[in-house]
Amino acid sequence: MSILVIAEHDNASLKSATLHAVTAARKLGDDIQVLVAGGDAGAAVAAAAAVAGVGRVLRVDADHLRQPTAENVAAATLAVVARGGYTHVLAPATSFGKNVAPRIAARLDVAQISDITGIEAPDTFVRPIYAGNAFATVRSMDPIKVITVRTTAFDAAPATGGSAAIEDIPAGPEIRTSKVTGQEFSKSERPELTSARIVVSGGRGMGSGENFRLLEALADKLNAAIGASRAAVDAGYVPNDYQVGQTGKIVAPDLYVAVGISGAIQHLAGMKDSKVIVAINKDAEAPIFQIADYGLVGDLFEIIPALTRELSA
Amino acid sequence: MKILVPVKRVIDYNVKVRVRPDGTGVETANVKMSMNPFDEIAVEEAVRLKEKGIATEVIAVSCGGAACQETLRTALALGADRAILVQTDVELQPLAVAKLLRAVVQKELPQLVLLGKQAIDDDANQTGQMLAALLDWPQATFASRVDVAGATATVKREVDGGLETVEVALPAVVTTDLRLNEPRYATLPNIMKAKKKPLDTLVPGTLGVDVAPRLVTVKVTEPAKRKGGGRVADVKELVAKLRSEAKILP
Ligand SMILES: Cc1cc2nc3c(=O)[nH]c(=O)nc-3n(C[C@H](O)[C@H](O)[C@H](O)COP(=O)(O)OP(=O)(O)OC[C@H]3O[C@@H](n4cnc5c(N)ncnc54)[C@H](O)[C@@H]3O)c2cc1C
Ligand SMILES: Nc1ncnc2c1ncn2[C@@H]1O[C@H](COP(=O)(O)O)[C@@H](O)[C@H]1O
User: Fold this and answer.
1) Which of A103, A145, A174 to probe by mutation at the B interface, max B CB count within 10 Å?
2) Ligand number nearest to the C-alpha of B121
3) pTM > 0.80
4) What is the ipTM of this complex?
5) Structural domain boundaries of chain B?
6) pLDDT tens-digit profile of A58-89?
7) Which of A94, A165, A257, B164 could hold A278 in an S-S bridge, CB 3.0 to 4.6 Å?
């Protein structure tokens, strides 16, 4: 009986989200297999084989998997699952995993269990509902459990220490009804938002995209990633991939600094598991203060530069 | 071209959801219900495609109890032409909804199904992808822009790294993200007109779909409470506490 983890990668490297899914897989069983569906993905395959606890890496390499669509990743996964012996198929609950996992589940005629934060038994899982205002414990009655894993709920498996066997699996024919024709990815030298130790997030209170420079200066001092509320993204201050929350990214850094963010439940859903929360807001009644360890009431346009200066002192 | 828009009735996003003391679910009695916000965005997009002359008919469909009629009337007031209620009191999970929607698609033959990316009650983010798989159609999830030209939809998708563009051959499934559009408000005259638009009711049995849940909810619990409310007077105190108390900063 094996657990299959669908690797998220960019051919050259394994995304750290995959390491968290491996940890969840290890709670389910011992035979962990990682599927790397890619194009010229040798480096990602090698990285997957080095992850501690991984027993086997299944490589499906084809040109059409270089920038793969959900259709083609699902097809590759289903071909592997069809070999038999799999009890669970896991993917990280990222935009990649959320895109493909339901497709796989539907083809297998099984439920998909989204965004799990806990494993109570091989068929019983905990997951947040209603923006994390409640947690449901659900038991699956299906023969195969298709799961996406909330990365902040499971530690990253060590990236080294493993030496998995690598098995080649032939790619099926390309599904051509969809294709990826472009990417506009935010470039940043900063740590990645979902894995950064410190996150500084700005909301509507920032007032403009220009003003996010104040947060950048602070983030530079802290080696932090920059996040945002939906309002800041909707207003065009920052790109969509900065959004933290129920329908954005889930983060749980050691330190989360919320600046000019009121603290709507949809935002809290994405950050309230942070170890330490600092809130800076001019409205002493803002709900964000109810969950903040250190709340500072005042004008962010005075506080942020002063904080940046204090950290340089 | 016909567009099908599945809309879900959910607890309004402004409601503070409470877990029932017996742990069987969340309190739904006397709670404000609304159309799932992502589905409003889907209705808006479909109506805009009709206004541009690309779509000929917009059909809203909801699966659930009789109260979903209200949600469908909202969709009609926002510009959908007609509505279908697939009526059942069984608790529906995404796979079951996807199967019901597949049956409706096979009757109506739309070229595009526009769903929300996520229902804000179950937070599943599955139904669109499942429907696409069951129909063997291509999918474009988390759309922040949709352009339909001929037999192709070009969709900008909000992904973790930024934006990705995919081209899908129609018929296809598209799920909406927050930046796709800003839904209009239903005007009073349109709410009145909506009352006269057709609303048909089907049942899972006649569609030949087994909607039995695959997941059993063992219990529903409150999240761990976070102890917040701490205050600092100024930047100096904040930095001092982050250093000595929280030990986050060196
Ligand atoms: C379906 C759905 C999904 C959603 N998903 C998300 C999500 O994933 N993530 C998310 O964040 N939101 C999400 N939202 C939106 C959420 O409900 C709130 O509208 C949003 O989080 C508000 O953003 P904000 O706090 O930046 O803006 P506001 O609520 O407008 O707050 C701005 C704050 O800035 C403060 N401020 C203003 N000027 C200053 C100043 N000079 N100095 C200090 N403070 C100042 C104000 O006091 C105020 O508290 C979603 C909503 C819906 C309906
Ligand atoms: N009961 C339902 N009736 C109609 N549409 C639904 C229903 N459940 C889910 N959907 C659609 O599927 C989307 C995603 O829901 P989910 O997969 O539950 O997060 C929603 O935004 C709706 O468009």
Assistant:
1) A103
2) 2
3) yes
4) 0.97
5) 2-225
6) 999 999 999 999 999 999 999 999 999 999 99
7) A257
Q: What is the 3-state secondary structure (H, E, C) of B41-94?
A: HHHHHHHHHHHCCCCCEEEEEEEECCCHHHHHHHHHHCCCCEEEEEECCCCCCH
Closest ligand 1 atom to residue A261 Cα is 25
Mean pLDDT across chain B, nearest whole number?
97
For the CA of A202, the closest atom of ligand 1 is: 26
Distance of CA B207 to the CA centre of its chain: 22
CB-CB neighbors (< 8 A) of B97 in chain A? none
How do B199-202 and B82-87 pair as beta strands? parallel
A143 CA: distance to closest CA in chain B (Å): 10
- Which class for B42: exposed (0-12), middle (13-18), buried (19 or more C-beta within 10 A)? buried
A254 contacts B166? CB cut-off 8 A: no
Put simply, whether A117 touches B (Cβ < 8 Å) is: no
- Distance, in Å, from the CA atom of B70 to the CA atom of A4, rounded to the nearest integer, reads 43
Greatest CA separation found in chain A? 62
Q: Decide if A179 and B167 are in contact by the 8 Å CB cutoff.
A: yes
What residues have CB less than 8 Å from A241, skipping those under 6 apart?
A186, A193, A249, B158, B159, B160, B161, B162
Taking 3-state DSSP, the helix, strand and coil percentages for chain B, each rounded to the nearest 5, stand at 30, 30, 40
Token pair for residue B139?
């999918």
Record the tokens describing residue B224, joined without a space: 């761990």
Closest CA to B249 of A271, A223, A226: A223
Calculate how close chain B gets to A184, using CA atoms only, in Å. Answer: 5
pLDDT(A294) > 90:
yes
Determine the Cα–Cα distance for residues A276 and B228; give it in Å rounded to an integer: 10
**Torsion-angle region of residue A70: left (phi > 0), alpha (psi -120 to 50) or beta?**
alpha
Of the CATH numbers 3.40.50.620, 3.30.365.10, 3.40.50.300, 2.40.40.10, which one belongs to the domain with range B2-225? 3.40.50.620
Would the CB atoms of B228 and A306 count as touching at under 8 Å?
no
Q: A282, exposed or middle or buried, with CB in 10 Å at 0-12, 13-18, 19+? A: middle
Cβ of residue B192 closer than 8 Å to a chain A Cβ: no
Q: What is the mean pLDDT of chain A?
A: 97
Closest-approaching ligand to the CA atom of B86: 2
> What residues does ligand 1 touch, defined as CB less than 6 Å away?
A 203-205, 229-232, 243-248, 260-262, 264, 266-267, 270, 281-283, 286, 299-301; B 13, 37, 120
pLDDT digits (tens, 9 = 90+) for B122-149: 999 999 999 999 999 999 999 999 999 9
Q: Distance between CA B42 and CA B61 in Å, rounded? A: 12
